[in-house]
Fold these 3 entries.
Entry 1:
Amino acid sequence: MDIRNDWSFEEIQAIYDKPLLELMYEAATIHRKHNQTGEVQVCTLLSVKTGGCPEDCAYCPQAARYHTGVKAHKLMDVDEVLAKANEAKQNGSTRFCMGAAWREVRDNRDFDKVLEMVKSVNQIGLEVCCTMGMLSGDQAKKLKEAGLYAYNHNLDTSEEHYDKIITTRTYQDRLNTIGNVRNAGISVCSGGIIGMGENDEARIGMIYTLATLPQHPESVPVNALVAVEGTPLEEMKRVSVFEMVRMISTVRIVMPKTMVRLSAGRLDMTTAEQALCFMAGANSIFAGDKLLTTPNPSFTDDMEMFRLLGLKPRAAFKEPQMEASEMSVTAE
Ligand code: SAM
Ligand code: DTB
Ligand code: SF4
């Protein structure tokens, strides 16, 4: 079988260490075999609750303890969120992801409001996604019942590098949330960030953990650190496109059917650089001129890029492409 969950660290390392063009060619070949190349999922982010977060994630402009100039904002109203979702839909997005600067979801009135948001965004035909921190099994079930399609909860880095980045919650906490999301039947979105001072082993380690979960995440965001002034990582040098391509290619090869999202950091990349990432198997982007708090290319610029590269937005609620060999199995 092509989809494997029994990868060893060394096997992934051997892939990651290949000469770059060889690696990219292999990733592009696997991408072509398993997915509709040229189709890119367009996803819009909205920060529904901004800043003032109690956590200490070293990369994050929303952590209350750093002075980054991000203005804290309480949970938005459902109507405002719905208006933004409609706007995103008009612009061609098929997935709408709502982010909250919380350590975890709590069972309170804010959660009831989030459930309302999920219901109404689902009703306009968008794939609804949330990223709101840790989640219990019960909360995941409630979100699923409200119509949640996907939940984003990143591993961010490898288990070994993790405590250099975050100390206020553990790697196991993250894995537990991912498990709760999976058990509730919600699509799992989990990836990480490169450019936080980690070495190659840490990058490979993160891919290893994701690729050996009982089921691969349906989507894996690969973020390049956006070094924000005031955070502990403000001085980090931005990653090169070759590092992004190496990361994306390896993710594509070990998780062939997963959506690989070229996430934060696109504003600093040229169209030619992004083209290499799509060639290497990236098939999803965040669109719209803002990520959560930092800028992102405009819809107009992205549509021009799509035109130039011959890419087209992927339809909502599309299941991974089946291969002929798998169809006979499922038809039984
Ligand atoms: N508070 C929730 C949580 O931490 O899960 C949800 C929002 S949090 C901002 C979502 C993800 O955004 C983080 O896990 C991290 O991977 C990514 N992120 C945050 N700040 C970033 C930055 N400066 N550069 C790149 N990615 C970033
Ligand atoms: C993900 O992996 N990247 C997105 C989304 N999931 C939530 C967030 C990127 C945030 C970049 C910094 C900011 O805009 O605040
Ligand atoms: Fe808070 Fe999430 Fe930012 Fe960490 S990444 S500080 S949990 S908003």
Entry 2:
Amino acid sequence: MINKIEAIREEVNAVKAEIPAKVEEFRIKYLSKKGILASLMEEFRTVPADQKRELGQKLNQLKNFVTERYNILKENAAGTSAIDVSSIDLTRSATSFPVGARHPISIVRNDIIRIFSDMGFTVAEGPEIEDDWHVFSSLNFPADHPARDMQDTFFITRNPIDVLLRTHTSSVQTRTMEKNQPPIRIVCPGRVYRNEAISARAHCFFHQIEGLYIDKNVSFADLRQVLLNFARQMFGPETKIRLRPSYFPFTEPSAEMDISCDICGGKGCPFCKETGWVEILGCGMVDPNVLKACGIDPEVYSGYAFGLGIERITNLKYKVKDLRMFSENDVRFLAEFESAR
Ligand code: PHE
């Protein structure tokens, strides 16, 4: 029994208990009713009377020692957290990770959607991998139109069916008109692809938002008013717009819209090439052939469409000089927009 007492003493001496939970474990193991000391006391009863004196002393000393150890451990652990330190990963970096920022294209896309949804437009989406019908034929592109050329369009398969990456979001117009009867009032944001050499000013993919409104008695004046409202909300209440005649196979008449240059206020500067105007979108009245192709009666309904490039609007708002920055995803560039939202 003497040896046992010695062994327990050494064991207790070596115990480390840094946190309250461990100290409690120590107490239960040694000092509780069913603990080691209690069972030694039990054993003590059976020792021969001539050894009782010496063993009794040793046992008392052990008890005092263990109680003292317990008090010291308890005091040291007080105030430490309840978490077991051994479970804390000391290799983790002490600095917190930076919070991500929204991509500038997403910021501007969301702004555009918000402006148009305030005017009653809902969001429609369509696939990026399309067929010839939805991207070209239904939109009144003649069979020999140069946009169909391998140079402009990424084809996935050709003949018998042409499968391709959509070159514009106008394909979502067709898809929506095929499935719904007017009134239709949608904006279609999405990524589009064109077979262009990548440079500061052109990329093989970019983002567009298409707008479409079909109803009875929709006029060019309605289109102009909606676009003016958009331009003022996007670029400020002083913004002026100008519509220049243009050509798209799917609209007639067609126009391109410029806004007054917000750098020089319309006086002329290098940014607007001294014209005072910068082009921002294409638009027009939906061609009756397109309505017919999509199962809508052009005798009853009319409508307008417009399409704008999100990168273009973002460039105008944030003066990004190189289109490639939008897809390189350099965090130093993206962090610049953290405060934008
Ligand atoms: N789809 C045209 C383009 O990609 C833009 C546009 C849309 C023009 C709708 C007129 C009407 O250039």
Entry 3:
Amino acid sequence: MTTRMLGAPVLRTEDPRLLRGEGRYLDDLGQGAYEVAIVRSPHAHARVLDIDVTGALDVDGVVAVYTYEDLPPRLRERLPVLIPHPALTAARTQHVLAAGEVNHVGEAVAMVVARDRYLAEDAANRIHVAYEPLPAVVGHERAASGQLLVHDDIPGNLAATLTQEIGDAPGRIAAAPNRLTFRLDIDRSASTPMETRGVHARWDADDQRLRVHSSTQTPTSVRAVVASYLELPLAQVECVAPDIGGGFGVKIVHPWPEELLVPWAARLLGHEVKFTEDRREHFISANHERGQVQFIDVGFDDDGRILGLDVRLLHDHGAYIPYGLIVPIITSTQLLGPYRITDYRVRFDSLYTNTVPVSPYRGAGRPQGCFAMERTMDRIARHLGLDRTLVRERNLIRPDEMPYDFGLTFQDGRPYAYDSGDFPASLAKLRELADWDGFPARRAAAEAAGRLLGIGMAAYVEGTGVGPYEGGHVQVETTGKVKVATGLSTQGQGHRTAFAQVVADALGVPFEDVEVVTGDTRRFAYAVGTFASRAAVMSGNAIHLAALKVREKALRIASEALEVDVEDLELVDGHVRVVGSPATSIPLGVLATMSNPLRYAFDASARIATQFASPGTTDRPPVAAGESPGLEGTDFYSPLRSTFANGMHAVEVEVDPETSDVRILRYSVVHDCGTLINPMIVEGQIMGGVAQGVGGALYEEMAYDEHGQLLNASFMDFLMPYASEVPAVAVDHLETPSPLNPLGIKGAGEAGVIPGSAALASAIEDAVGVGIDAMPLSPSRLHALRVAADHR
Ligand code: MCN
């Protein structure tokens, strides 16, 4: 019997190659390529008066220097708004090279192409740009005041304002027996993947084809925009995502200026061209996220049940808005988490500032929303003197209320409706896993030794698997090996392992015989991309459906060959065999041979003989109508709406009474992403997310000064947690399958990061007894809060 692969904790097959250093990342490609250096703005806001490139052209080895004036008309257009929205009435995106004005430090102004990167950098230093500096708009308050403008023609710096409302929140709050109002501040952070952005392009003059390699989460979209901006037919452009050293959201945006400039230059110069972003460039030119100010107004009864919630968000969108309003829309809806809130109003203002633009970073607006909701729960508990888990318990949506439709609109324009979940069961599991009830004794023992301990928790629901679609192709080769392709790319999530499990399960073939390719438009041209924790739901189901087509075809051919009804056949260990008579079987590879009228016979001596023959009967053509040769199948999965995963985290911390340094003692996660394809991968995803959550809660911030200069644009200054700061994580799963897709899967890729700040704030507040309303909470910030509280 073939072992069931769905749900099996199989080791990731992609890892040995990567661990041996055999990965092929973007910068490993094109060793003979010309290389690019970008001249970037040192000013947050300035008019570009003149660019003198003559000094650069004198450098030996420089091939070309380009400014906006050198670009063809199509490339002079602004980059697209990838996700328009009716509320986005003042959308502004950037040019690939500055057209007379720069709006953040790091904006691309000119491009040098040279024989190598050193020469390109030397030449870039010799380009003299005359700027007229303008006042910079930095920070939510300054942007919201509208006194200074980022874009002259956009009053109030307001890209969009959007209100969503259910019930009568202001009325219910006014009439509630208890009311709290407070403000929360969350600093900017960023994806900061190990591998920065990069793009390589080669124009093949013989084939008239452009091949673009990009370290991207969306290769099919990069292909489409490159074709469009370079005015080439789509068929002449290929895009391949090589091995990618992390993306975490920042590589969804397309095109980056360099993703158009590099292919354009490669075609123009008839030579390979490559750009690899350096770390400093990544800090100042690749997008950030998280920065948000949140005003909460909540009314609740004496048991802690929320009666009305009114939220106002100021969202800092940076200088441009390439990705639409996705982040604040996600915060606005996902803020509600697992709680039954019937009277809710949320309004956000999306504001331009002279800082790096914003697009989703793992979690995408949810950590901010979770921080708002979970801080609210903690404050209610504190106000009423109730246990924090009890207040949450009383507000949870019950399993018998599923599906639960809030009446709001989600990021995909579809109803904000939870498909399944058992939140009370999750909470019960969490209390047990974290030994919540045993904490008072642990605290008392620690206190006796002069130590400060605290415990906290946070819950979230995460919309995953957004549409519109994803596809998969499954092909059994005559060797019996199975080749699988899907169009989205992989940045470390382990798709090759997980999708091989899906196919092994559907086809009854050994897992080792399945090989998966992702992110190559030559192999699968229709795809959306890897983001929004959607690959498992979307490609997983598409590949499953494609494999079922192959299964059906294999059974049909075998049924004809063996003269046995399909119902009497089974697929086991790569063979179709007769139920109850396993000796009567045909290997899938032979069926693959038989499926092609031009048969490539597979003989024991491994010699390939070609034989022209029609299969089976003579009363139908070799390829019957509606059929295709080959044992292969393609299918797509396109859901009506998102599926919602959920989870809860509890964390126990110790705060140093002298230094306010925070140490995490225990971290517990209960997680429900429906049917698990591979629990080990999911746990890895959760742990990686927790690490980023810890970073967001305690360390990471983009320290902009009032002039829009990023003061910590290096890993010397931007603090990330090391292995020493990331706790061991205990994970427990709950599996409530999604009724929305054939495999019952929900996404898992962002889950770990979402409640980090909220859970840590809860625990630290519990330890020190001082209200926490801002993140990140560095020791110095925490110390200042404690000192201020002591002096009150
Ligand atoms: N999985 C599973 N069972 C489930 C759900 C998921 O076994 N029920 C597995 C999937 O098969 C996949 C992994 O878990 O191998 C994550 O799946 P999914 O939730 O579909 O997320 P995506 O594959 O779409 O990945 C995107 C998500 C996001 S949005 C960010 S940001 C992120 C993340 O994944 N960036 C990452 N995880 C990352 N992990 C790494 N190493 N690098 C990144 O850049």
